[in-house]
Amino acid sequence: MKTPKDTKLLRVLFSEDQIRRRVEDLARQISSDYADKGEVLLVGVLKGAFIFLADLCRRMTVPRRVDFIAVSSYGDRTVSSGNVRLVLDLRGDIRGRHVLVVEDIVDTGSTLAYLLDLLRLRGPASVRTCAFLRKEKGGPPVDYVGFEVADEWVVGYGLDYADDYRTLPHIAILQVNR
Ligand code: PRP
Fold first, then answer.
1. What is the distance in A from the centroid of ligand 1 to the CA of 72?
2. pLDDT per residue over 80-117, tens digit each?
3. pLDDT at residue 53 is higher than 80
4. pLDDT band at 51 (very low <50, low <70, confident <90, very high)
5. What share of the chain is helix, strand, coil (3-state, %, to 5)?
6. Is residue 169 part of a domain?
7. Average confidence score pLDDT of the chain
8. First-residue to last-residue Cα distance in the chain
9. Lowest mean pLDDT among 32-41, 60-69, 111-120, 129-138
10. Residue 82: which CATH number?
């Protein structure tokens, strides 16, 4: 198993201030888009999305509720296994509801593709996607993106490396010594 000893924080990519301003923009845009829809159900994808979701939902102005789902594909690896596993399901029914899936990062897109297939089978009124970070690798379209990032390992603001660095208040680039 990799440990933080094999890693080194290289530099800050997005500061707390940049993150706060971008999340405010996203919350404003999402609130405007959902203004005539009644209520939006924010589905946070654990663990990575918990901090972004907490900030986003508190800045939105339309009626909203929150639920969580947990999947895993990376484990302690730095490359997606492509084999997505449902770890924890939603608590509530999503039939007829406007669902917004909230991710910390869309990398290969396999996690999001798996989730969209799963959620659409349950008869929601709509499903949209929001990711704080997105790498340019294809995968399903993301409706709301915080920042596009290059193909580097990024940590902080919920994103981890082998479950470390999640609680950094900013996004940093991590060097991983293999
Ligand atoms: C990370 C991240 C996304 C997914 C993105 O989750 O939070 O859910 O990988 O990668 P993909 O686009 O290549 O599928 P991870 O499996 O590491 O679990 P975690 O959120 O608990 O850290």
1. 6
2. 656 888 999 999 999 999 999 999 999 999 999 999 99
3. yes
4. very high
5. 25, 35, 40
6. no
7. 93
8. 11
9. 129-138
10. 3.40.50.2020
Ligand 1 centre to CA of 110 (Å) is 9
Q: Which pLDDT does position 6 carry in this prediction?
A: 85
- C-alpha–C-alpha distance, residues 88 and 93, integer Å: 14
Output the pLDDT for position 138: 76
Residue 49 lies in a domain: yes
Residue from 43, 108, 111, 114 to probe ligand 1 pocket by mutation (most atoms less than 8 Å from CB) = 111
Q: Measuring from each residue's beta carbon to the nearest atom of ligand 1, which residues come in under 6 Å? A: 45-48, 72-74, 80, 103-112, 160
- Catalytic pick among 107, 117, 143, 160: 107
Number of structural domains the chain divides into? 1
Q: Do 142 and 129 meet the contact criterion of CB atoms below 8 Å apart?
A: yes
Q: Which atom of ligand 1 is nearest to the CA of 106?
A: 12
Compute, in angstroms, the gap from residue 61 CA to the centroid of ligand 1.
28
Give the whole-angstrom CA distance, residue 143 versus residue 177: 34
In a domain, 3, yes or no: no
Would residue 156 count as lying in a domain?
A: no
Q: Which of 6-20, 66-80, 139-153 has the lowest mean pLDDT?
A: 66-80
Asked if 107 is an active-site residue, the reply is yes
Q: Which atom, in ligand 1's list, is nearest to the CA of 139?
A: 12
Domain that holds residue 66: 16-149
56: left (phi over 0), alpha (psi -120 to 50) or beta: alpha
